[in-house]
Amino acid sequence: MKNITIIGTGYVGLVTGTCFAEKGHQVTCLDIDSEKINALQQGHLPFYEPDLAKLVTKNVAAGRLRFTDSYDQAIRGAQVCFLALPTPSLKDGSCDISYLLMAIEELAQHLKTPLFLVNKSTSPVGTAGKIAQTLHAALKHRDDAPSFEMISNPEFLREGSAVSDCLHPDRIVLGVSSEAAAEFMKELYAPFSVGPDQILIMDIPSAELAKYACNAMLATRVSFMNNLALFCEKVGANVEQIRRVMGGDPRIGEQYLRAGIGFGGSCLPKDVQALRSMALAYDHRMPILDSVLQINQAQLDHFFDKIVTSLSPLSDKTIAMWGLSFKPDTDDLRAAPALFLIEKLLSQGARLQLFDPIAMSKASRLLSKFEKITFCQDEYAAAQGAHALVLTTEWKQFQCVDFDKLGAQMQNKLLFDGRNQYQPSEMQKHGFHYMGIGIPPETIPLSLVHVHPE
Ligand code: UDX
After folding, report:
1. Looking at the annotation, which residues are catalytic?
2. What spacing in Å lies between the alpha carbon of 387 and ligand 1's midpoint?
3. pLDDT of 452 higher than 70
4. Beta strands 80-83 and 65-68: pairing type?
5. pTM of the predicted model, to two decimals?
6. Which helix (H) or strand (E) holds 374?
7. One-character DSSP codes across 263-319
8. Taking the C-alpha atoms of 172, 395, 322 and 230 in order, what is their torsion angle to the nearest 10 degrees?
9. For the segment 216-228, what is each residue's pLDDT rounded down to a tens digit?
10. Are 414 and 321 in contact (CB under 8 A)?
């Protein structure tokens, strides 16, 4: 058992801290947001993540997990401190590490005993060095300055499955500069039942860059498929069939080959931009990343154009939208394609009826200024009287819908499937005009899909 402090109780910090506690360590999670800490102390989580609430409750009750807004309390007796702070994008796409450096200044005032200092926040190559410099500078006037050692341990948690990803990691990346640091971290992760070949020990710059390389590769795969999907539309090919062929090749693998309306979230868009600008700072161009970002934007524009082409003018149309979060099983709306689409549709005067299984309260706060939006209680209510239905996030509950009942409520049986969730032939059976991404249009002409001609 080790004494762990986690600075920052966002997705990464809270999930990581809770999972370390679940594995038997003694964990203190620190955040400067006192409201958030008060809420956590009362068992209220700041975001939705499957299985997290019950693990937090269990480990708090067992005395292994506690929350504080006091650096002094948090750092007392800690053997290791994880930094899990936001590293947002600056205007030029580069990564802002000021939250990390501010936390270090504060930490320095309370640090009394030797410490392993682990950076978990996604941050550019060289960040560990800057953190170390900042801490050295802050400690240098103290006679009793304790020793510390930097480690880079990037996270690979996906929202929606973060707890499971954390408890059962594919691999653990440790950027270290001494044998002692490697041994300490291996002991820390020993209860996670990872084999020795899943613990990847390397130098610190490689660990820092590895995280960006992974997210940029995932984004590249998605953009490749999205770009290919638009070509499929031109030549009458089906990207879903092609995906099966590609995914069946073990050299390619099945994951991150789904065409759709683009990747969103707090990581992929930000990390591609950050890698691009990190490279530029070293006078190294990575033009592939420019394309990845440009395709991601074009994908959404193309989807929007399809809606406009079918329904123009939008000013007298009502559009139902299913799904607001950037992906299922999370209430995270950051860089959610649905939000970009909402803005575009509103700018053309459309009236929107929205539904998301989990993200409704966050979305209604964010979109409260727009009059032409109605937040609906379920997917059927959202479709009531709509001229078209747009699927933006592939929540499971949207898969088992009664399309006959749904179609009878709509003005037009027109479905824009932004995630290729439905079978065109099935939708055709229910009389829907179906438009997916990179899928040849099926045969029901638009003129026959009107349920209630105006
Ligand atoms: C990502 C990384 O996967 C994770 O390892 C890292 O630590 C944080 O960033 P996350 O942002 O939670 O995780 O989402 P992810 O599941 O990777 O999906 C990112 C985006 O890509 C979503 O918008 C998703 O809809 C989209 N996507 C994913 C596709 O469009 N097609 C795919 O085939 C896969």
Report:
1. 267
2. 31
3. no
4. unpaired
5. 0.93
6. strand 373-375
7. --SSSHHHHHHHHHHHHHHTT---HHHHHHHHHHHHHHHHHHHHHHHHH--GGG-EE
8. 60
9. 999 999 999 999 9
10. no
